[in-house]
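Justification of computing resources. Each target in the renewal requires a structure prediction run like the one illustrated here; the chain below, 116 residues long, is used simply to show the kind of job we budget for.
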Amino acid sequence: MYTIFGIPNCDTVKKAINWLKENKIDYQFHDYKISGIDAPTLQSWTEQVNWEIIFNKRSTTYKELPASLQKSITTAAKAIPVMQEHTSIIKRPVIVKKGKVVAVGFDEKKYEAIFG
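Resulting structure tokens:
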């Protein structure tokens, strides 16, 4: 079974969930706002996928961080605690199966290739 990590009111997460439902793909949802995210999980993700893909510098949350903090985030190790504290900065959704990141974000064509 797949796990979708995100927040329920995110339009991109909604698109991903709707696509999975339409294609009858079983999943469970991990809500960052309720359950948070632990450092070992983020470490695993950043070892599988470039941390700069997971860490969304285009997000409003990132833009609201102090400039000094933004400048200091130059590695996965520095990004992980920020992602734990500000989960909205994590690119959404992250889809995982058995600990392996299978998708980050939503792209219908990529989903067709991954899940089709």
